[in-house]
Amino acid sequence: MTAHDSATRAPAIAVGGGTLLAALGVLCFSFSFPATVAALSGFGPWTATGLRGLLAGVPAVVWLAVARVPLPERRHWPALLAVAGGCVLGFPLLTTLALQSSSTAHLAVVTGALPLATAVFSALRTGARPSRTFWWAATAGAGAVLGFTVQQSHGRPAVADLYLFGALLVCAAGYAEGGRLSRELPGWQVIAWAVVVALPVTALTTALALPAEPVHLSARAAGGLAYTAAVSQFGGFVVWYRAMAVIGVPKASQLQLAQPGLTLLWAVLLLGEGLPPAAPVTAGAVLLCIAATQRART
User: Fold this and answer.
1) In a domain, 4, yes or no
2) For a Cys-Cys bond, which of 2, 72, 122, 289 suits 176, CB 3.0-4.6 Å?
């Protein structure tokens, strides 16, 4: 092995490992909507959101304490607040509210616009300049999703769609800030601190929502809540932010274009939902955009 071979293979291995981590994060997140539906069978939307963040805070606090992680520096707090507001509070609550009047399949396809929103936030925040091919492919994927939304709502966005677009904006900001911060802090610390920062809000939400919303505890509801807390809110972000640190926010975010197709599959297999005829077509078009964005230089 030559010195040149060694120098070129190490980055290739790192990028390959980052791509695998991003794919694992997408797989974890693809179960989030079915798990939320399961949680809603026993909990109200505000209770489910509050408990999700509150329960995710338990392993976060323990891990930070055991590892004796010092408090983040002052310059890290704005990004952590963005992650907490977007990924711990805003996105879970808004998508949970949307699921009360919309199907998992519909939400799954609409979330295909998240990668483009994340790439835009990242470019604005970091000054990154992805290639034209990247932007054309990402825009095409988002356009397919928006076209599906308009077609499904007969030209007029429903209340659930408004919740969803708000969720996409705040989550994209959280993804972009978290991915940027993961270049300075380990990814698990980014999401752990974000969950901890949000604990006062999630604890207050839980305390106010539990008496106001009926609870019908069952194994299905408890299992769904456990998944959203342990995986959707914490474990999935550990690998996701690590992947963003390795391969960059734009590249990692475009891998999430595969998430709608996976969630559609789980909606059929796990929830028994019927698919709108346009859903598989839209998901297929979005998948084609993945190949283009991954081949484009960023």
Assistant:
1) no
2) 122
pLDDT tens, position by position, 50-105: 999 999 998 899 999 999 999 999 999 999 999 999 999 999 999 999 998 888 88
Q: Which domain holds residue 68?
A: 14-295
Q: Does the pTM of the predicted model rise above 0.85?
A: no
Q: Does 7 reside within a domain?
A: no
The predicted-structure confidence for 213-266, as pLDDT tens digits, reads as follows 999 999 999 999 999 999 999 999 888 888 888 887 777 777 777 787 788 888
Within a domain: 9: no
C-alpha span between 289 and 276 (Å, rounded):
21
